Amino acid sequence: MAVFSHSDTAKKGPANADDLAPYLENDEKLLGEIRSGNIVVIWRVYLGDLAKKQGGLPAYVIAYEKDAPTKGGYVATGTTT
Fold first, then answer.
1. What is the pLDDT of residues 30-80, one digit of tens each?
2. What is the largest CA-CA distance in the chain?
């Protein structure tokens, strides 16, 4: 949701964890996971532009656990449902 909130407010995708911090209530544990690379965020993706692409927001991964591609894990797509 932080990526959605930043994209909506800034009209651009977040560039780093600091951009997401206000939307994560400065949760240092979660921000630490992002900064360490344990949670991978696809940076600089504006969801408004992504929504216009083929398949729309649900078709695109915007964040995932670092091991998800090889071992499985949680993946966040560009949809809230």
1. 999 999 999 999 999 999 998 899 999 999 999 999 999 999 999 999 876
2. 35
Q: Give long-range contacts, CB 8 A cutoff, 24+ apart: 19-25.
A: none
> How far apart are the C-alpha atoms of 11 and 51, rounded to whole Å?
13
| Measured distance CA(48)–CA(36) in Å, rounded | 27
Please give the structure tokens belonging to residue 5.
């909130």
Per-domain residue ranges of the chain: 2-77
Return all residues near 8 (Cβ < 8 A) that are at least 6 apart: 47
pTM for the whole thing? 0.87
